[in-house]
Automatic annotation (TrEMBL):
Residues 261-280 have a biased composition (Basic and acidic residues). Residues 253-280 are annotated as: Disordered. This is DUF4283 domain-containing protein. Pfam families: DUF4283. PANTHER family: DUF4283 DOMAIN-CONTAINING PROTEIN, ENDONUCLEASE/EXONUCLEASE/PHOSPHATASE. Residues 57-137 form the DUF4283 domain. It comes from the Eukaryota. InterPro entries: DUF4283. It comes from Spinacia oleracea.
Length: 280
């Protein structure tokens, strides 16, 4: 029976067969808007504005922040936030991941007071603060410019005025403000100015200016912190030549020491139990 079926199949599909040619139906094109439901389509639910209204109201008095160039532990951030913002009614300090935190205040008025405080710093690193929004996505990589403090050591006292001082630091970045000690001329070891710089710019160690008598002066620049990206660990705030992670561990197969054979020249070489048994 099986042989008869095989002969029939061979006859039908034989190139020399006199049977009529095979005809195929045209493919059916299904529109994407077709009402036919794919068997692989997952079920879906609709979230309405009414469903999320309570959560929006809850987080509306919050700010999102991170320290650029560092990821301090959560308990350190919690203590720091409550120390600088505690008087504004801090309700919650919660980590969102990747060094980003959210702080909820008791009222939106207190949140706005925090946002109006200006630039904040943590260990001389920029403390980036933004108001929480419904669809915001906070990434450190999105920051294009930041404020940093620069020092001008041994600057002639004649050039501590805002006009001349801002001209000098203007070759590094956009001057924002002098610190209080510089403004009051209380610490004369160096002038200190907050400047806005680009994340991708060059940070010169010195700049040149022409003084009032036409003499070209080279002024050293000291950065309290700068947004240098390490090529080794991709961290921010240091270069690859001083990176503590530049020496990467190299995997090597573990060498398994072979125990010597039980009998070697000169006596026994077995374990303690075997040696003790021979001594007995």
């Amino acid at each position: 029976m099986a042989s008869a079926i095989e002969d029939e199949v061979c006859y039908v599909f034989s190139p020399n067969s006199d049977s009529a040619p095979l005809n195929f139906a045209s493919p059916i094109h299904v529109s994407p808007k077709s009402s036919v439901r794919s068997e692989f389509q997952k079920p879906r639910v609709k979230i309405t504005h009414d469903d999320i209204r309570d959560e929006i109201q809850f987080w509306d008095s919050s700010v999102v922040f991170f320290v650029l160039g560092a990821n301090p532990p959560s308990h350190v951030i919690d203590g720091f936030v409550r120390r600088i913002w505690g008087k504004f009614g801090v309700d919650k300090v919660v980590a969102l991941g990747n060094g980003v935190h959210i702080v909820r205040f008791t009222t939106t008025e207190n949140r706005d007071k925090v946002l109006s405080m200006g630039y904040q710093f943590f260990d001389k690193k920029p403390f980036v603060v933004k108001p929480w929004e419904q669809s915001m996505s906070v990434n450190k990589e999105d920051i294009k410019s930041i404020p940093i403090w620069v020092q001008l050591p041994k600057l002639n006292l004649m050039y501590w005025g805002e006009k001349s001082l801002y001209k000098i630091v203007g070759m590094v970045g956009k001057p924002l403000r002098m610190d209080m000690a510089t403004k009051k001329r209380e610490k004369l070891q160096y002038a200190r100015v907050l400047v806005e710089v680009s994340m991708s710019q060059v940070f010169p160690d010195s700049v040149e200016y022409e003084d009032a008598d036409g003499v070209v002066v080279t002024q050293p620049i000291v950065y309290e912190w700068k947004p240098v990206v390490c090529e080794t660990c991709k961290g921010m705030g240091h270069s690859a030549d001083v990176c503590t992670k530049k020496t990467k561990p190299v995997w090597r197969p573990k060498v398994v020491q072979q125990h010597p054979s039980r009998q070697e020249e000169g006596g026994f070489s077995g374990g303690d139990k075997e040696l003790k048994a021979n001594q007995d």
